[in-house]
Design goal:
By secondary structure, this protein is mainly alpha-helical. The chain has 3 domains: about 90 residues, Fumarase C, Chain B, domain 1 (Orthogonal Bundle); about 240 residues, Fumarase/aspartase (Central domain) (Fumarase C, Chain A, domain 2, Up-down Bundle); about 100 residues, Fumarase/aspartase (C-terminal domain) (Ribonucleotide Reductase Protein R1, domain 1), CATH 1.10.40. The protein is about 60% helix and about 5% strand. It is built from 19 helices and 6 strands. A two-stranded antiparallel sheet has the order 1-2. The chain has a two-stranded parallel sheet with strand order 3-4. It has a two-stranded antiparallel ribbon with strand order 5-6. α7 runs parallel beside α13. The longest helix has about 35 residues. The structure holds arginine (ARG). Arginine binds next to α7.
């Protein structure tokens, strides 16, 4: 492509070192789509004839079909996807192909291709996030009455509906969804026409190209357009957050599926066995998701580090963005795709949940609230109930097993109805503030999400 200025062949070592076709071949549908639109602008500017445009479009389409069919031969010496397609087109159709790169550089070409690619991947990710949310809501609604201990510090805290716990992740996934929508909007700007750095002396109708490629606007600074990858970094950051959320849910799933918790049973189809221990049934989907989160974080760091020292504008370093981008997208898509059916196929063990939530200490705060409702300042009430808990620990009994006299001995504010407080359904019923897990609130949140996701 640059043979005019050079007297020697590229060293084979350099060829191997600098090629990107082994991974950027995936950009082919976008590269072709971009070239088809670019050729429309060349036609409009009178730089190619209608017949030349037709043969470019036809040639590109044929190449596309061959790539899709797996019969196209990519050449390492042609470096990247852009040159592989253009060189083959020119080999097939001659001069018309050689005119295609008029007023275009690989710098604005790759900026366009990545944006087109990421835009369509955003759409797939948004769909997968919706399916993930639907699976969570389905599991929540199928087990709407199940109460489990809620945890802080992984210590039993207060009772919550299992559904409330799941819906917390639906909320997180919703913010993930919005982050992706937001960064899709910012990346959705058409960069072609920026050339290598300073546009071109040959004027093309950039608005036409944008319209053909369904971009609502065009970039306003040619140097910015070829030099920044902030839109990709934003998406990788959004994906790092998605992965973090999935990783936390993974940790919950792993705990819940353990014999110690026993809250859920995962389907055979989404667990693996051990080659040695016959009894094992391992939550590998959740473990792998938790593990892959490291890669997704790493990709974000790679890209940030890649970009931080680059002088304006395009630098070849930027070719290193691809593998990080592809890997984060592939990884998060795969995790979302497998998580949704795994959740749908999970069974909740109501009996184990009930026995865990029968721990009366979960209602210690309710006892303090009882004292507050009888006029005691909360700090004082906290201390009184703390002493009741200590008394139980000393006697080896539960809060439900202390007598009225014992409660009365701790504080004369306790009345004979004190034991009625130590009741989970009553406790749940009372949690009526917006966002709190009363049965009515949880039911209406399930209904809200069902309607939203429908
Ligand atoms: N494969 C290159 C990349 O991904 C395309 C742009 C190459 N531009 C250049 N001037 N060498 O960055």
């Amino acid at each position: 492509m640059w043979k005019g200025r050079f007297q020697q062949q590229t060293a084979e070592l350099l060829q191997k070192f600098s090629e990107s076709i082994s991974f950027d071949w995936r950009l082919w549908p976008h590269d072709i789509e971009g070239s088809v639109a670019h050729s429309a602008a060349l036609l409009k500017a009178g730089l190619i004839s209608q017949a030349e445009r037709d043969s470019i479009v036809k040639g590109l389409q044929e190449i596309g079909q061959e790539i899709a069919a797996g019969t196209f031969k990519f050449k390492e010496e042609l470096e990247d996807i852009h040159m592989n397609i253009e060189a083959e087109l020119t080999r097939r159709i001659g001069d018309a192909g050689a005119k295609l790169h008029t007023a275009r550089s690989r710098n604005d070409q790759v900026a366009l291709d990545i944006r087109l690619y990421l835009r369509s991947e955003c759409d797939s990710l948004l769909k997968l996030l919706r399916e993930f949310q639907s699976a969570l809501v389905q599991l929540a609604s199928a087990n709407a009455g199940v109460v489990i201990p809620g945890y802080t510090h992984l210590q039993r805290a207060q009772p919550v509906f299992f559904a409330h716990h799941l819906l917390a992740y639906v909320e997180m996934a919703q913010r993930d969804w919005e982050r992706i929508v937001d960064c899709r909007r910012r990346m959705n700007v058409m960069p072609l026409g920026s050339g290598a750095i300073a546009g071109s002396t040959i004027l093309l109708d950039r608005a036409l190209i944008a319209e053909l490629l369904d971009f609502p606007s065009v970039t306003q600074n040619s140097m910015d357009a070829v030099s920044d990858r902030d839109f990709a970094i934003e998406l990788l950051a959004a994906l790092a957050i998605v992965a973090m959320h999935l990783s936390r849910l993974s940790e919950d799933v792993i705990l819940w599926a353990s014999a110690e918790f026993g809250f859920i049973t995962l389907s055979d189809a989404f667990t693996t066995g051990s080659s040695l221990m016959p009894q094992k049934k391992n939550p590998d989907v959740a473990e792998l998701t938790r593990g892959k989160t490291g890669r997704v974080y790493g990709n974000l760091m790679s890209l940030l580090t890649l970009m931080k020292g680059l002088p304006m504008t395009y630098n070849r370093d930027m070719q290193e963005d691809k593998e990080a981008i592809f890997d984060s997208i592939d990884t998060v898509k795969a995790a979302l795709a497998v998580f949704a059916p795994m959740l749908r196929a999970a069974k909740v063990n109501a009996a184990s949940c009930a026995s865990a939530v029968a721990d009366p200490n979960l209602l210690a705060t309710d006892l303090a609230d009882y004292l507050v409702n009888h006029g005691m300042p909360f700090r004082k009430a906290h201390e009184v109930v703390g002493r009741a808990v200590a008394l139980c620990a000393e006697k080896g009994c539960e809060l439900t097993e202390l007598s009225f006299e014992q409660y009365h001995g701790l504080s004369s504010v306790f009345e004979r109805d004190v034991h009625s407080i130590l009741n989970v359904p009553r406790s749940m019923e009372a949690r009526q503030a917006i966002g709190a897990p009363s049965p009515q609130n949880v039911a209406s949140q399930i209904a809200r999400w069902q309607a939203h996701l429908a």
